[in-house]
Specification:
About 75% of the residues lie in helices and about 0% in strands. The chain is mainly alpha-helical. Helix 7 runs antiparallel to helix 8. It is globular and about 65 Å long.
Length: about 300
Amino acid sequence: MTKASKSLLCAIDIITLSFCGWILLYMSIGLGLDRVKDAGVHLPIFLSIATSILLLAWLHRNLNTERHPKLDKALNLIRALYPITLFGYFFTSGYSVNQIIFTRWLDPFFMNIDLQLFGYLPSLIWGTHFNGYLTSEVFHLAYFCYYPMIIGLPLYLYFKKPAAFKELIFNLSFVFYMCYFIFSILPVIGARFLPEAMELTRSYRGGPFTHIMVFIYRHTHHLGGAFPSSHVAVALVLTVAALRHTPRLGYLFVVISFFLTFATVYCHYHWFIDAIFGILAGVGGYYLANFSHRKLQGAQ
């Protein structure tokens, strides 16, 4: 592709800039209503992220690839990977805008759905009534596996199947941004809305994986971002991708994702309804991401 015909923005730039644009617009509306937290911190950060993406894209388009092939390769890698470095910040910064439309936590509504379905709260009862050492370890291990899954599969595909790697990064980004968009509108804490559940997620007990997850939640102070469960959604994106591109690993991911879905409730992090909509967001989001990617590539 010649410099003249080379598009400034790639598909992943477009969806990342769209998400940043949404937050900047939404934050501006919230400022007028005095409902944004720490705007002085997050407004310039989002502006800087959007500006950096545009500058990086401009530099790459105007690079003489024949004279600087190594730099071109490095920029290709950076433009493929940079969204991963933003996922954590986008999630934790969500508290700044998640009470613009609804100024109170919506957990009583979602909690009532679980009560209507079960007659009790699974996110409180399952983890306290079936709290044996082995049971607790299995579910906390499944939940912990989210982290090596989200690192391991992209790394594997990067070295073995570069085209599948690019597809996966786009799909992960798309589903994350979709969840973050919902989080910005619907303020839901999840089961930790209940003081007794919050205490359980911060109390050391059981075996090593239970301890690891308690350590993580003791040092993670965000609230909100529970509906739908992005852990479930992203785990299923990884599972579908693994089944398509490396089936043996995909079968393992199926087992992990099955237990992880229940673990989000068992470990007191989510309402049951959060997990159900996490399944819908993950599977539906994967195929919607593929469709969007084809459309965005065709428009370039």
